Every structure is written in structure tokens, then in C-alpha cells.
Amino acid sequence: MGKTILTGDRPTGRLHIGHYVGSLKGRVELQNAMDYDKMFVFIADAQALTDNFDNPEKVRQNIIEVALDYLSVGLDPSKITLFVQSMIPELTELAFYYMNLVTVARLQRNPTVKTEIAMRGFTSEDQQAVFGSGLPVGFFTYPISQAADITAFKATTVPAGEDQKPMIEQTVEIVRKFNSIYGETLVEPQILLPANNACHRLPGIDGKAKMSKSLGNCIYLSEPADILAKKVMSMYTDPQHISINDPGHIEGNTVFTYLDAFCRQEHFGKYLPEYPNLDELKAHYQRGGLGDVKIKKFLGKILEEELQPIRERRKEFEKDIPEIYNMLKKGSEKAREAAAQTMDDVRRAMKINYFEDKELIAEQAKRFSAK
Ligand code: TRP
Q1: Is residue 137 part of a domain?
Q2: What is the distance between the alpha carbons of residues 245 and 199, in angstroms, rounded to a whole number?
Q3: What is the distance in A from the centroid of ligand 1 to the CA of 349?
Q4: 220: which DSSP letter?
């Protein structure tokens, strides 16, 4: 059996360059390599509702934003299936049966659930508004729902960031448990992490560990050129690097982290010919004598080169919004067929196919007639 690739994003905002280097760019490469049986990319609206249930309008508004981001980075619905999670009712059906296979203690140990609760639950004010009356069961069990997303399509390969590792591990456990109880039915997935280390978790422009909408430290994929330039100039660097001649630090210096993620050899010839490569640039910064403005301008040009074509393509797609909804609808219909097939396998394995099991009906008839 060949590869089946599947991944998705929560529609809680426009996608940013952290999503781009961490996942989107790699997805487009995978898509174009054509080295797979099937590839699915989906908008995880139902999962987004687990912690935005009081704001369905936000989720609904962002479905089209994420779809536009997908198309503008080059995901191509003629090659892969793009769909919307909530349009596949089989996913909730599967999740319901998987709930029998997971303990409460195991969910409490899921690091993603754990940190999300610690980070936003009960401590931060905005999350208190959502989770004020306690942790909703829906949020608590979303790793199970994510296992359904992955296994419904018999995905072998899940391109995602490091933060999704615990979700894939939990999915593998569910697959093993299911197969050992009901017989070989489901496929074990593997996570596919980005090759470049700097891409695993891009920090925000303020140097905070994560680029996130709520921290207001994002560079969005659809950022206009002038705002992009402004944001780059405002980036966090090295607070000890006060005058140009001070020796500077590379570690924790957001500009260099972004350069690690985005800079290619050819950029030097084009934008900064006085340096042969990134190592030399770093060495000069560490010695002292290289100013922040210079490295920021360099990064700004690199980012503009990367984002400009994405921005242009987005503008084209924005001209026909109804067609994008139509594309998502068609993709969702196709995805549903695939999920329904798995659902048939699951029902058969779990012996809940009463009406199609002729043998069962005949056996029962015999049992009762012998009475
Ligand atoms: N949890 C992912 C995120 O936060 C979104 C997601 C939902 C997902 N289901 C998935 C990713 C299945 C990969 C596979 O972005």
C-alpha cells in the first residue's frame, strides 16, 4: 500500500509564516512530488469549536481565510482533496467508538491537553470566559477526535509541527488497541516533521516562544508589503547589542532564527553580496560591528521575496469566493466517501453491521425456530 498523507489546521485566524515554514511549504512540496496514493488537507472547524464554542462566527469567518491561504501557497484541489471537517459526520461517529478505548487518565496525561489547560485554562482571563464553568468534555476529548480525523482516511503520513507529536502518539495507541480488540482494521500513522530545525517552532516577532494570534506577534502570509517591512524592523534581537560595535548574540535572536528558517545561499548574492553565507554573517554579528538594521533589512527582502507571490495569488483567488466554497464542498463530498469506507470496515470489525450480516440474521432465525 502506498502513502496517504493527511493534515489540517484550525480556522481561528489567518495562517502565518510559522504555519508556512512549519508545515504549509512542506505540504506543497509533498503535493507536487506526487509520491502518494492520496493526499487530504482539511480545515478543522469542529476542533476549533472545542475551545471557541461560544464564538462560531469567528470559526465560520476564518474558513474562507484558511482556504485562501491554502490556495495561495500552492495547494491545488486538482491534485489533492481539500475539505471541511464538520462536513464529514463519520468523524464524530468514529470518535464515539474510540472513546471506549481511551482512559480519562490517559487524556489528562496528553501533553497538548495538559499545556493548553495550564496555558489558557483558568489562569488567563480570556480563557476563563470560555472555560469559566469548567473544562468542557469536548475540549478534553479532542485528541480522540483528532485520532478519528487521521484514521478515517487511513492516513500513513501526517505532516505537522512538533506540537502535534502527542496527538499522533495517542492516535497510534488507539489504532493498536482497536486492531488488537476488533482485528486488523486501522492504519498506524507517522508524523512527518519539517526537515529544518529552525522551522519546528518559529518564535513570534517579539521573541516569545510561539507565534500566536492572541500574543499579537505574527507575520501573516497575506501581510501587505508595508506592514511586513514594519514588522520586521520592529523585531526582537539581542537586548545587549546596544551599539553596533557591541558583540551580539545569535541564540534567542529572532532575526537570526528567521534567517535560519528562510535564508538560502542565493539570497546573499542578490541582497547582501558583501557576505558569502549565513555563517559569516553570524560571525560578524557575534564579533561586533554589524548593526540590527542591516540584518533586518536583509531578512525583510528575503521575506518579501517569499511572500510576494503568495500575496499576488491570494488576490486572484479572492476574486471568485463562491468558487472556493464550491471547491470545498466538492472536496468534502469526496472526503466523505473515503471516510464512509473506513466506517464500513469499523462497523464490520465491531460487529455493528446487523442489517447487512446475512449470517447473523440466518443464525438468529434458526435459534428462535429451534425453540
Ligand atoms: N490540531 C491541529 C492544529 O492545532 C489541527 C488538526 C486537527 C490536525 N486534526 C488534525 C492536524 C489531524 C493533523 C491531523 O493545528
Answers
A1: yes
A2: 30
A3: 26
A4: B
Query: Which residues form ligand 1's pocket by a CB distance below 6 Å?
Result: 6-10, 44, 47, 146, 149-150, 158, 160, 164
Summarised one tens digit per residue, pLDDT across range 220-233 is 999 999 999 999 99
pLDDT in tens, 295-326: 999 999 999 999 999 999 999 999 999 999 99
Phi, psi of 219 (to 5 degrees): -110, 115
Q: Which residues does residue 82 pair with via DSSP β-bridges, in sequence order?
A: 41
The answer to whether residue 219 sits within a structural domain is: no
Output 201-206 pairs: Cβ under 8 A, ≥24 positions apart.
201/18, 201/22, 201/161, 201/162, 201/163, 202/17, 202/18, 202/21, 202/22, 202/257, 202/258, 202/261, 203/254, 203/257, 204/254, 205/231, 205/232, 205/234, 205/235, 205/236, 205/254, 206/235, 206/236, 206/254
Residue 216 inside a domain? The answer is: no
DSSP 81: E
**Res 121 pLDDT > 60:** no
| Index of the ligand 1 atom closest to the CA of residue 146 | 9
Sorted by sequence, the CB contacts under 8 Å of residue 245 that are 6+ apart come out as 288, 289
Q: Report the CATH number that the domain containing residue 253 is assigned in CATH.
A: 1.10.240.10
Residue 122 C-alpha to ligand 1 middle, in angstroms? 24
The alpha carbon of 73 and the centre of ligand 1 are apart by a number of angstroms equal to 18
Q: How many domains does the chain have?
A: 2
| Closest residue to atom 9 of ligand 1, CA basis | 146
Residue 145 lies in a domain: yes
pLDDT of residue 124: 45
Compute, in angstroms, the gap from residue 297 CA to the centroid of ligand 1.
Answer: 34
| Residue nearest atom 2 of ligand 1, based on CA coordinates | 9
**pLDDT over 70 (residue 243):** yes
Q: Tell whether the model's pLDDT for residue 137 goes beyond 50.
A: yes
Residue 150 CA to ligand 1 center (angstroms) comes to: 9
| Domain enclosing residue 331, as ranges | 4-201+321-362
- Residue 362 grid cell: 440466518
pLDDT tens-digit series, residues 151-165: 999 999 999 988 899
Instruction: Write down the mean pLDDT value for the chain.
Output: 92
- The more confident residue out of 242 and 172 is 172
Best probe residue, ligand 1, of 7, 115, 210 (max atoms within 8 Å of C-beta): 7
